[in-house]
Every structure is written in structure tokens, then in C-alpha cells.
Amino acid sequence: MDTQQNTALTRALAEVPGPLPTSGVIHIAIPHTDRFTVVGNHLAQHPDLSCTAVGIAVRIQSLPQGVEVGIKALAARCREGEKRVAAALRELEAFGYLQRVRNRLPSGRVITRTIFCNQPTALLRPRRPAAPQHPAAAPAPRPAPAQTPDDVPTPAPAPAPAQAQVPMSAPAPAPAPAPTSAPGPDMSAPPPVPPPPLVAAPPAPLFVPLVPPPTAPKPPPAPLPRPDALTPELDRAATALLSDLRRHAPQFMLSETEVRQLVPGVAAWLERAARPDAVRRILTTDLPHPLRHPAKLLKHRLTALLPPPLPGSHDLAAPARPRVTVTPFQNCDDCDRAFRSPTPGHCRDCREHRTHHTNREHPSEATRTAA
Fold first, then answer.
1. Which of 282, 313, 103, 94 is nearest to 205 (CA)?
2. Which three-class secondary structure state does DSSP give residue 194?
3. What domains can you pick out in the chain, each with its CATH number?
4. Which of 170, 209, 251, 359 is the least buried, fewest Cβ under 10 Å from its Cβ?
């Protein structure tokens, strides 16, 4: 008898239309009459926005225009700190709900204006002119003044077809022969089918996230490295190293099956001249707490931290520099000018002068040479 019963809640549940669900939430929708804000489901149920970002968006949407909605102002109104508020504002800005624009005043001061849109996808569609909210607010049509019988306009004659319109200055055309009766439209033919309405393409999203969602398919893991040739010596050394890990880290109590699965990875490290103590230190250092799957951790480290093979002596040798042949300088025998040539002789000007002088003195030889 001492249990308090909420009769108001019981009465409200009785007024919910339809049968109540057996599980899940039960909504008691009481219409708001004052102090309420309309929030779309595209924001309240956004699949990529965090709950903090949705709450900050609802808080901004409920504030009147002109209220400061910066990081410090929102942190003073909410329980979240400045870091969480800043992260939420970045999310809303990435999805188009929030936009921060920097404007320069006539005085030269730069201010930041914050613009919030409650439905950013509607900005991509053409907007129709808004209809008046209240019919009573629309201006009443003015009554037309009473018209007397003299003011009643006479109906204008119907305009003649374009073919019958003839300018007044043109002579009257000769009477044409009476046209034969044109065949009427075929009433038995089916009416033309109107084309299907054009379906507008859905608007492109304002923002395409670069980070895939958690439900996106993950790429397959990289395979465990294997040596070029798993010799008996490598197999024995890798098995001993894996079996000895529990002495250095008790968390690595591996089964025999797990050891056999990880042997090729350790053998690939040993084949690349990795020292056993270095391999052991890399595999057992900086372990997570608690370590739930030691074999998976070893496989990940053996795959992701595999060192490259040691380079050979020919790889470490410095590359041979290409030999550049330099043509030496020579002094001209006539003008003593310096020029580049593999053999001594005359420069180009002296050679041309000698050829021209020879052609003038012995034209027959020049003609014979040209022939």
C-alpha cells in the first residue's frame, strides 16, 4: 500500500491510440502550445552525426537570432567542455548545417558570422515562393466601382485569322476558287500518349566523408610473411623462439597449433638477418592491457613490422659517375684565337676566309669541287 502510483502516467497510457507495443519505447505525444522547436528527423536520426553534435544543433536551432553561438558561449550554456563543443561544431559544418563566414566591416575589423540551416539539403532544390500563412492576413480585394450602362464596354470583335489579314494599302486579291472540304480529324485514332514526367535526379550530398563509416567492409588482412625457403634450421630456430616467449612475457602462452601457424613469419625475419633477441624484443614490448589474443598480436607485428632484406655489397657501392668528354682548347695558327677542337688547326672564321680566297683565285677548282 506504500507504493506510490503515478495515476497521471496510467491515464496517459490509456489514452494512447492503438495497442501498446510489447517491447521498445512508448511515446506519449502531448501537443506543445508554447516554447517548442521543430526539428527534422534528418537531424535527429542522422546516421553520421554524434549525439553531441545533434544536441548542439538542437540547442542552436532553439535560440533566437542574434544570440552568440561560439565555442565559449555554447560551453557556458552546456555541460560539455570547449573541446567537445568545437568537435560538434566541426561535424555540423562538415554536413552543411553550420557555416562560419568571415566578413570585413567598413571600419576594417574582421568578424565571424555564424549561419545555421535547419535543412541543408533543401538549399540544393529550387525554392517556391512562400504562400501567406494566414488567409485572413491577405489583403481583401477592393470592390469594383459601379458601372453605368454607358460605361459598360462593348465586346470587341474576334480577330480574324492571320491568313485573312490584308494591309489596307494593298489591292484586293482576286477571288480564289472555292476550296474543297478538308477531311476532318480521324476520330477513330487513339489520342496521343503524353510523355512520361521527367524525374529530377536526387541532389548531390553537401559533404562526402573521407573516413568510412564503422559498418563499411574492411579490407582483408595482409598475409603472414613467409621465407623464400623454409629450411630445417630456420624452422627449428623459429619454433624455439616462439616457444621461449612465455619466459620473457607470461601473456604469450601459445598453443602448439598457434606456434606452427606463426613459424613461417618468424622464419622470414630470421632469413632477413634479424637477430633473435631483436625479434623477441619487438614482439614483447609495449603490450596492450589486457592482452586478449596474443597469437593475433604476434601475427600483426610479424606482418606490419617486417624489416627489408639486407642489401648486398653491389647495392651499397656508389654508382659510377658518367664520364664526360671535354674537348680541349686550341690556338688558331693564323689569328691565335682560342677555339675548341680535338686537333690543332684554324678557327672557323679563318677556315671560311681561306675557302673564300681559294675560290677567288682558282674558280675552276671550285667549279670542279661543286660538280
1. 94
2. coil
3. 41-122 (1.10.10.10), 232-304 (no CATH), 330-366 (no CATH)
4. 170
